[in-house]
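Re: weekly structure request thread

Next one in the queue (429 aa):
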Amino acid sequence: MIQRSLTLFGGLFVLILLMGWVMGAPFTSSRLVEAAAYALIALGLNIQWGYGGLFNFGIMGFLMVGGAAVTFISYPVNPVFWGGEGPAMLGKALFAFAIGALLVLGARKADRIGITGKWKAALTVLAWFVAYVLYRSQLDPAAAYIESAAGGGWVGGLGGHPILGWIFGGVLAAGIAYVVGKICLGLRTDYLAIATIGISEIIRALIKNMDWLTRGTLTVSPIPWPTPLPQQLQAGGTSISESLLTARALYLLLALVVLGVVLWLISRAYAGPWGRMMRAIRDNHIAATSMGKNVTARQLEIFVFGSVLMGIGGAMLVSFVQIFDPSSYQPINHTFLIWVMVIVGGAGNNWGALFGAVLLWLIWVVSEPLSKAVFEFVSTWSTQFGWGAIPEIEARSAQMRVFVLGLVITIALRFAPRGLIPEVVKRES
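Done, posted below.
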């Protein structure tokens, strides 16, 4: 298995060198930064699915949360918002939210004062209704004011360091994952998958429509880098070409450091008692329960851990491209593709998830320009023979990415059904 892994990673290294020679160093360095972020996200899914057997089809929602978090933390401060009545109005909305939460919590504990059964259920429903009305009565005027010219259009950012935004993205994703897990982890696997899809779409709808907080479909840019930008290096006397490569190399180095630390930590955890317990729960949760393990609590734990990595990876991607556009998030790019990375690479194996993420992302981004080059060559040849040119080459080239991805899945699962670098199961003799 070690020899096979070294061979595959060696081939991947050759592919990267070939890509740099054909496509150029600037293009390749950008794709490697994105591949590092996707590798982090794939490791998060590998924790959930490969370690715990949890179907999370809501990856896109956690990526959006991470992107919104780093935008809020690192984007420059909006002085118009902070100089107006917006902060005070938002404070009232938060206070109303807290009051509503206390009402709901009190209704859920009504059995302590003798209210049980249907009366408790009715009281809980009434508490939710009152809490919602109270919260919206304060939030709607605040949102309308902030979105106006007097309120600054939107909240803006806090002007903090982007790395703080990455951390906040992980924390925010963890909080949402905890709530989602408390609701959904009691469901059967197929229902869990459906529930996470629905929650992901809810998150996307909220972020796209909360113009006062995220600017919605108007997008936010430019988002600062955690490392020096090419323009900053050029201001210090570096040439344009050198500044571009140096800036991306520094960003890639930072992304690799984060990826390396995460990979080391989860590999140690996977090899220890915690990892053995998670594999036992994944393989037979009934037997694990009979041994005294709190299966639901452990599944919630692993669901939160994986979501943290997804939030950080989503924040890294948004920081790199320097634009937060909620409309750009699509399930095929930000959920399905991640699943393919883990399945093709090898679920349950961290190195397999890492390999699959880098390989599949490079294939995904290279297939379009290569398809375009092939179509243009064939179009020129067919025109010379009088057969006419190939129409809509741009659109056809973009569609070829899905075809190539499906072809890779078919070939990989045909010859390596457990993944290219599958999980190594050690059995005691």
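The two ends are 20 Å apart (CA to CA). The chain has three domains: 39-74+159-329, 79-153, 331-422.
Next request, please.
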